[in-house]
Structure formats: C-alpha cells, structure tokens
C-alpha cells in the first residue's frame, strides 16, 4: 500500500528511485518551476534535455530523465504545470493535484518517490500529497478472482511506493496533519474505486454488504453497520427499492453505516445510489448502454468510503451513510412500466420507465435518513444521462432545496479539487411529474431530465432539512485513458467532496 510522508530536506539529497519536479509552459518551451531544490548543474542538464525533447510544460505532460548530475535520485520526473514562468511560486491547487498524479502514475511501480513541486503553504502541500496518492492507484484485477479459479488463497495486494512530499511550508503540525489526511482520504477513495471496478457478477447487493463489513472491521475507526434485507425492506414499506430489485435473483439491501463520536457536535446524513448492475429492467438498455453499468453503484461507494474516512479522521460530527443497494434486472418478476409502488413515507409513485430506477432507491433512502432529523442530507448518484449532456464527463451537477447549502456543497467540491456546478430546481417543472394514478410520477419528459429527477427526490426530504443532490453520472467512471488524477475506470469521485463537506459542518442552531 502507498505511504505518504513529508520532509524539508533538500530534494537533490534524497536517495529515492524517482524525484518529481515541475515544469511551466513559456513562449520558449518548458522551463523548470520553482520548488525543485536542485543544484545549478542539475537545472542546466534538465533544461537541455527538455529543450531536446521539445517539451512544452503543458498539463499532463510527463518526462523522465535518468542520471541527472548532482541528484541522488535514480531519475527525475518532470511534470507539466501549464502556463507560468520560472519565478512563479504559487499554483492553483487543482493544477498541483493533477500534475502530482500524472507524475506518480509514470513511476508508481517504484519503491520510493519524492515530490518537489511548488508548496509555499499548507494547502499546496495538501494538494500535492492528495494528487500523488491518487496517481499511485491501480486496480488489482486478480484479487476479486483469487480462489475462484482453483488457485487457493487471495493474492497479496501489490505494494505502492513510499511517497515523500518535499514541503516548502516547513513541517509544522498543520502540514503533517494535511499529509496524514491526504493518506486517509486517498485510501478511502481507492477503496471506492475498487468497488466500482469490481465485476458485477462478483459485486451484488449482499457481496457489497460483505465488502463494507470487511472494510469497517479492518479500520481502526468505530463505525457500526446495520443491514435491512429484502424481508425487512418489505416489512418497512420500502416500496421504491423493493420494486427495483424484485426482478433479480440478488435481492436488495439498505446498509446503514454510522460514526457517532462522543459528544457529537451535530449529525449529517449521506445517501448513495447503489445499483450494482443496471440492465434497465424491462425498459432494457441497448447492449452498448450496459457496458459501464457495473459503475451504477458509484454513489454508494463514495458514501461508504466517505463515512470510513470521516471516522478515521475522528471529527466531532456524527455521520450516517445509507447505501441503497439493488440490481436492476428484467426477470419474470421485474417491475413494469405503469406499476404503482408506495415509498417508505407513504407516497405512491407511478413507474413510467424501469430504467429510471436510481431515484426510486434514493427516495426510500432519503426517507430513512430524514427520520433521524439530521442537520442536512446529501445524496450522491449516477442518476441521469442529462447530467453528462449538460455538464460533460468531469463536472457534477448539484441541486438542492436550500441555496446556501447547495453553495456549501459546490464550495466543498472546489476545495477538494472535484468539479461541480450548481443547478436549479425550477418549480414550474414539477408539473411534469403529475399523474392521475398516483401521488407523483417518477419521471418527466426528456427536457430538463436532470432537474426533474432532482425535483422528484426533493419530495422525500423531511420538512426543514437542508438537502442537496449530487449527480455524478459523468465523473464517476472514466472510459477513456487516464488523465491527471483520474484513472481509467472507477474514479472515486465524490469521496473527497463529502469528507470536506463533513469537516466544514457547523451544527444548526
């Protein structure tokens, strides 16, 4: 497993396998950024090599140079920071995260790596540490299959590098805590990525439950786990999630994860959509539309990881996560279009499209979360294709019933380096959910689909509770090649945002 430490030693004196430094983009090509700590002869050598390589210094550009004079490291990795000049001392934290991750991805098989990017303050050190950890991620594709092909015990997970961040802000307590926090959140995010990347025949509602129990058992933090199985869900009136899961041989579950510190200063709730595979149900998706549907549980993965990270960080706020787990399949007992189901709070809902199942499991989860009257609720979900049409693959849409709280969620995403954008919930669109056969229809027409999904979820939020909905359909899964701190496959998007939001919470008066 990757480890993170911090040092103020001169980077050139560190006997590591690879030393990471930054480059900036100038009119004359790439130039070394400040913070590298290299002697003159090393700088001259690297500049000559960069010129010969026609390096630009653009973001996501990485060059590795061996046998650099005056440097103990076996190689020097030069990672692009984008536009700037050699005298610039401060960079946007997102730029630092992306550059550190791109560099570490190039040397993640090494045993030891030092990162000497511009870090004039605690926040910069934190961003570099976070990005460096993220860049070391690799999914162990053999691990889920170990023991299933007659080869005995599970494989030992591959060890990550020992990463040392060279701090330009010294080593006060705040710097050390920032690096330790980056390791905690990074490990949780990696777990969320692993969950998303796990094949759907191996990750279904009950095996997801078992994965959560194992992760909690392995954690030093005190998190309690309780589970509602299919019988308890029926008895408890959870018609939304029960209806979604009734066509599968793998019945649904709602997992509650609770971190309750002594003398808690407030309580918050996180609700995650956990569709372990989405075929579309009877409204069957085209075959091409199912290729990435193992990732339809990314919201639940983000919630599970965020609860564990928040507990391990030991904050004063009580955090409860609700994982709404189901498999949406077209079996003989599957839910039909025109069915009417009754949700946990007694609301009747007409089903128009069985492929719009995520809002149904979330609705029940939000009802359950509201019963505890938390200070606020955030749900996170791979909910609508409309989110990707509106905001693309990298930006989450954030809706809510309280403008100030919605702004807090967006601010937390920005601080965490995860893209998010505020979206409205126009009252006029609520009419699209009217139906003569139930209290509400679960879907409107195509226009404004992301917003009507948010309006539907809003119906299940308890009175007076600030709530936000985060649609991560685009940024949760990367089908293309890795870039910056985003790996191919599951991204773990949302974990950092949720942890940051919890850390910044102030209880309602």
TrEMBL record:
<feature type="binding site">
    <location>
        <position position="296"/>
    </location>
    <ligand>
        <name>Mn(2+) 2</name>
    </ligand>
</feature>
<keyword id="KW-0031">Aminopeptidase</keyword>
<dbReference type="Pfam" id="PF02789">
    <property type="entry name" value="Peptidase_M17_N"/>
</dbReference>
<protein>
    <recommendedName>
        <fullName>Probable cytosol aminopeptidase</fullName>
        <ecNumber>3.4.11.1</ecNumber>
        <ecNumber>3.4.11.10</ecNumber>
    </recommendedName>
</protein>
<feature type="active site">
    <location>
        <position position="359"/>
    </location>
</feature>
<comment type="similarity">
    <text>Belongs to the peptidase M17 family.</text>
</comment>
<comment type="function">
    <text>Presumably involved in the processing and regular turnover of intracellular proteins. Catalyzes the removal of unsubstituted N-terminal amino acids from various peptides.</text>
</comment>
<keyword id="KW-0963">Cytoplasm</keyword>
<feature type="active site">
    <location>
        <position position="285"/>
    </location>
</feature>
<dbReference type="Pfam" id="PF00883">
    <property type="entry name" value="Peptidase_M17"/>
</dbReference>
<dbReference type="InterPro" id="IPR043472">
    <property type="entry name" value="Macro_dom-like"/>
</dbReference>
<dbReference type="InterPro" id="IPR023042">
    <property type="entry name" value="Peptidase_M17_leu_NH2_pept"/>
</dbReference>
<feature type="binding site">
    <location>
        <position position="357"/>
    </location>
    <ligand>
        <name>Mn(2+) 2</name>
    </ligand>
</feature>
<keyword id="KW-0464">Manganese</keyword>
<keyword id="KW-0378">Hydrolase</keyword>
<keyword id="KW-0645">Protease</keyword>
<feature type="domain" description="Peptidase M17 leucyl aminopeptidase N-terminal">
    <location>
        <begin position="38"/>
        <end position="141"/>
    </location>
</feature>
<feature type="binding site">
    <location>
        <position position="357"/>
    </location>
    <ligand>
        <name>Mn(2+) 1</name>
    </ligand>
</feature>
<feature type="binding site">
    <location>
        <position position="278"/>
    </location>
    <ligand>
        <name>Mn(2+) 1</name>
    </ligand>
</feature>
<dbReference type="InterPro" id="IPR008283">
    <property type="entry name" value="Peptidase_M17_N"/>
</dbReference>
<dbReference type="InterPro" id="IPR011356">
    <property type="entry name" value="Leucine_aapep/pepB"/>
</dbReference>
<dbReference type="InterPro" id="IPR000819">
    <property type="entry name" value="Peptidase_M17_C"/>
</dbReference>
<keyword id="KW-0479">Metal-binding</keyword>
<feature type="binding site">
    <location>
        <position position="278"/>
    </location>
    <ligand>
        <name>Mn(2+) 2</name>
    </ligand>
</feature>
<dbReference type="GO" id="GO:0004177">
    <property type="term" value="F:aminopeptidase activity"/>
</dbReference>
<feature type="domain" description="Cytosol aminopeptidase">
    <location>
        <begin position="191"/>
        <end position="499"/>
    </location>
</feature>
<feature type="binding site">
    <location>
        <position position="355"/>
    </location>
    <ligand>
        <name>Mn(2+) 1</name>
    </ligand>
</feature>
<feature type="binding site">
    <location>
        <position position="273"/>
    </location>
    <ligand>
        <name>Mn(2+) 2</name>
    </ligand>
</feature>
């Amino acid at each position: 497993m990757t480890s993170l430490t911090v040092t103020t030693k001169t980077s050139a004196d560190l006997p590591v396998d690879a030393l990471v430094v930054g480059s900036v983009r100038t009119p004359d090509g790439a130039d070394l950024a400040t913070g590298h700590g290299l002697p003159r002869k090393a700088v001259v050598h690297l500049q000559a090599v960069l010129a010969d390589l026609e390096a630009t210094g653009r973001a996501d550009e990485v060059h590795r140079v061996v046998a650099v004079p005056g440097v103990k490291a076996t190689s020097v990795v030069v990672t692009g920071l984008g536009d700037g000049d050699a005298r610039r001392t401060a960079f946007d934290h997102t730029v630092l995260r992306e550059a550190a991750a791109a560099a570490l991805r190039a040397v993640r098989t090494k045993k030891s790596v030092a990162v000497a990017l511009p870090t004039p303050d605690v926040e910069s050190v934190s961003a570099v540490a976070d990005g460096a950890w993220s860049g070391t991620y690799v999914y162990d594709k053999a691990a889920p299959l170990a023991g299933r092909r007659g080869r005995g015990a599970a494989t030992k997970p591959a060890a990550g590098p020992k990463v040392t961040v060279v701090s330009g802000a010294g080593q006060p307590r705040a710097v050390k805590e920032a690096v330790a926090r980056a390791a905690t959140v990074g490990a949780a995010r990696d777990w969320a990525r692993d969950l998303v990347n796990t094949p759907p025949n191996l990750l279904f509602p009950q095996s997801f439950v078992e994965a959560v129990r194992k992760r909690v058992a392995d954690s030093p933090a005190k998190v309690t786990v309780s589970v509602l199985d299919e019988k308890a869900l029926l008895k408890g009136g959870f018609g939304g999630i029960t209806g979604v899961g009734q066509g599968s041989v793998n019945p649904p579950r709602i997992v509650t994860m609770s971190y309750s510190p002594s003398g808690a200063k407030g309580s918050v709730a996180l609700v995650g959509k956990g569709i372990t595979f989405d075929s579309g149900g009877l409204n069957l998706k085209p075959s091409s539309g199912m290729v990435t549907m193992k990732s339809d549980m990314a919201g639940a993965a983000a919630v599970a990881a965020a609860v564990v990270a928040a507990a391990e960080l030991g904050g004063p706020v009580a955090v409860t996560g609700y994982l709404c787990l189901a498999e949406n399949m077209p079996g003989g007992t599957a839910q039909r279009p025109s069915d009417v189901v009754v949700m946990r709070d007694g609301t009747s809902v007409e089903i128009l499209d069985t492929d719009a199942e995520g809002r149904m499991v979330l609705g029940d989860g939000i009802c359950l979360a509201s019963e505890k009257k938390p200070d606020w609720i955030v749900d996170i979900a791979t909910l609508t294709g409309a989110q990707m049409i509106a905001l693309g693959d990298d930006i989450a849409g954030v809706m809510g019933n309280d403008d100030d709280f919605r702004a807090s969620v967006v601010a937390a995403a920005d601080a965490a380096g995860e893209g998010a954008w505020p979206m409205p919930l126009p009252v006029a669109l609520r009419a699209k959910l009217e139906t003569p056969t139930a209290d509400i229809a679960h879907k409107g027409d195509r226009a404004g689909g992301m917003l009507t999904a948010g309006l539907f979820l809003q119906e299940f939020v308890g009175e007076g509770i600030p709530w936000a909905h985060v649609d991560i359909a685009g940024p949760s899964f990367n089908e293309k090649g890795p870039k910056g701190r985003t790996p191919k496959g599951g991204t773990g998007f949302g974990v950092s945002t949720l942890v940051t939001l919890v850390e910044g919470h102030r209880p309602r008066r």
